[in-house]
């Protein structure tokens, strides 16, 4: 006698993050709710809860029919980021989260509280493909782009954290893992979710959002044409092509002059200063003549230099410039008329500072 065993099929493997309310613009949200057999106006109610009341718990959505709460939340407010670890330093004012996404990818975000503001540094990709050798994220390579919802949820987590003490999140910087302009469409959509007025979005000022790039010139020009008023930050790290080709490999495609030219176009349209990010690396890019060259490139432009003491990363032989060298670099830039500050190295103890995000589980 032959026994026929039932055919067992593996469940289909998800290849993309689950759809989330934050992935959708208001019209798409209404259509999604209608497709679920509910009145389209329920989409606005869901948006009020997510963006306005900072909640995804269907039990508290008492303005929705009890029979609709669970199905709508399950369909449009799925969990996107599973917490792996949360660590704090600076007397609790800096907190870093490590998240696991639907496919096991690991990403990090960092909340920094200051006396006058609260800033969250968010990731736009799992890993990074720019391969800058002094950056822990770049050393790990690119896994994938994050979805709009995965990007926005990092901001919402920080907003909820601030709300527990009756405070508000004020600033967002796209300076975590990844090159934001290499994930252009989703980053731009996330920007609008962060800045659109409630209940369509979180309602932060566009000017309180910073979008960083290593210098993807076509994307900078595309961003200029969008008509938005975010702060543009350019990770320059060297004023000369010979060194920048090594420190920022994408420079082999778009040279310093072209990158800065695109940045000045953005500054001219917005009237806003471009932030020039410059990691100070001992005996690599911190020579006085490089400070003078950088000063000549930026003099008279809408620009501000943000010097970053190099943060230690595993396996790197490079170190931060001595404070005396750093001070001379600052003085030479200021003598050229270029506004210059040195970035506060928040989160260094928890590998949460600039260039340290590597999404390590241990």
UniProtKB/TrEMBL annotation:
Gene name of the record: rlmN
Cofactor details (free text): Binds 1 [4Fe-4S] cluster. The cluster is coordinated with 3 cysteines and an exchangeable S-adenosyl-L-methionine.
Xref: HAMAP family: RNA_methyltr_RlmN
Other comment: Reaction proceeds by a ping-pong mechanism involving intermediate methylation of a conserved cysteine residue.
EC number(s) stated in the UniProt entry for this protein: 2.1.1.192
Function recorded in the entry: Specifically methylates position 2 of adenine 2503 in 23S rRNA and position 2 of adenine 37 in tRNAs.
Major location (coarse): cytoplasm
PROSITE patterns for the chain: RADICAL_SAM
Protein name, per record: Probable dual-specificity RNA methyltransferase RlmN
